[in-house]
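As a representative case, the lines below give one protein's residues and fold tokens.
***
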Amino acid sequence: MAGNRKKEIDPARLKELAGLGLTQKEMAGVLGMSEETFYLRLREKPELTEWIQQGKAEAASEVSNALFQLCLKGNLGAIIWYEKTRRGIRDTVEIDVSKLSDDEIRGRLQQMVKEISRTGEVS
């Protein structure tokens, strides 16, 4: 019976889908199978998980290289993104204000605004 035929996963296609950034749920849909069947195939053939990891790694490498090339060409947005991600710089500052009075909060905020105006960042 055709309905009982076991659906196989083409490793090259799986790698391609992973490289496009699809989730495993999305990969299952594109491959025309249920999530349950997809995960069953991954358990049956652990090497398929390696194909997924390789696809993701190769895509990340290509994107990283493209970003780096933009940086070398002087693209300011790319440079800012690159530096922030590589150095772990964040645009947010967390302050525990639960034990501060309104005046103390205002004072801290004013200090931060002055520091940002002077240095471009908050320490």
Observations:
- The mean pLDDT is 89.
- The two ends are 68 Å apart (CA to CA).
